[in-house]
Structures are given as structure tokens and as C-alpha cells.
Amino acid sequence: MDWDKVNEYMARVGRSEHEVLRPWKGPLKTGLDLGTAYVVLCVLDAEDRPVACEKQAASVLRDGVVVDYAGALRIVRGLKEKLERRLGEELASCAIAMPAGTESSVRTHRYVAEGAGLEVTNVLDEPSAANAVYGIRDGAVVDIGGGTTGLAVFRDGKVVRMEDEPTGGVHVTLVLAGNYHVPFEEAERIKQDPARHREIFPVVRPVLEKMASIAGRYINPAETGTIYLCGGTCRLQGIEEVFERVTGVKTVKPEDPFLVTPAGIAKNCLPV
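Given the sequence above, the corresponding C-alpha cells read:
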């Protein structure tokens, strides 16, 4: 894997939150990531180059399942409208992705997208979506979302195992809230502050070790050369060392792993 290329690509995705990256070649491709902690809409052009991105903190899902349909619909509509104002162009289609084991909720995710005016043209699993950015043929992608830790093991570019279990960034935030005796929102700000990562690492280490143990149950070190991390929780400094120690497998992550999955979802959109 060319990490320089991955980091450069993700830096452009990050820039697209604040500026529209022109010029682009149409038609536009949209990825909708309905997450436990954030809802993200990521827009790429026909050549998969980042164009624009919007996100909003939300609590409309629990463990990958929509629990507040009206709230999810309202957020997706709002993000779509913001993007369309920025772009001066209507967004017509999108791809969506699901955590493993939540396939029965595809219909609800599809209803949210369609209710916001987006035609769903592709549905995939979250780790495979992330691998659209990484492009690995052999190894394991571990996607740590707000509510779950999901993984996909790849052999010759194909998924040979896929798992997902509860425990994600929300659990890290809850531990911080309890330790510092602060509201959840303040704990989330503490978690997202890189300047405090060294301070909070001993507090959240047990949760990170549990995430790593989830991966370790399904990954054979003798057959898996590298674990590739993604998801907002993976921004925590030192998380890759925890995974490597617990699993016995070399573990790496890009400089900014947060928007890897939304960008990968958008790459899989089939424009209408």
C-alpha cells in the first residue's frame, strides 16, 4: 500500500469539509454514512476525486440500527441541502454501508436516503467500503465506529470473513465522562482533543484493549500480515500499538482515519 497516496487522498477529503474542490468531472457520487456518533455525506466526482463533505454529530442510531427515523431523515436532508448549496448542483444518488450483522436494517437506511431525495444505487458493508480507499488484497480492515467494532479479512482482494460487535467510540466517551465527572458532550470534546490524548490514554486503554480483543478473536496472526484501522476512534494516539500488542499482528492507520469509510462508500456509488 502507498500510504503517502492514502494520506494525500484523505487530506483532500478533509479539505472538502471546508471548501469545494474544483474543478470536478461529473456525474457526482455520494456516500451516506449513517453512524452511531456522526452522519456523514461525502461527495466525489466521476473519477473518485473528493469534491465536498458535510457531517453532523447525531444519536439517531444504536449499534448500526436506526432508532430515530425522523431525526435521521432530518439530518440527512439538512446535510444534502448544505452540500447542494455549496455545489450549486443537485445530488441524485448515493451508496450506503452497513455494519456486519445489521443487514436486516438495510431497508430503513434506504428509506432515510430516499426520504432525503437520494436514490440508493449500491449497498455494501463498512469494512469493504473502507477498503475502497485502502485497496489492500491481503490483510484485515478494522472499522471502529461510534457503536461497534467491525472487521473484514481479505484474501486476494476478496472478503473471507466479516464480523461486527458492540464497543466503539461512544463507549470510550462514556468512560471519560465517568472518570472526569463531566457530561457526555464535554467528554466527547476531551476525546477529540489531540493535546489530551496522552493524558486520557491510561483511562481509555481498557476499552481499546476490548476492541483489539474483538479483532483478535477473528484474525489469525499466521495468516494476516497487517491490520488496517479506520474510523473516528482511531484518531486516538497509540491505538495502533494497543491492537498490535493484543492481536500480535502489525497494525497501521492513516494520518486521519475518520472519513475513510464515508469516502469509500462514495467510491461505490453508481451515478444515475
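The chain has nine helices and twelve strands. Try to locate this feature in the C-alpha cell string yourself.
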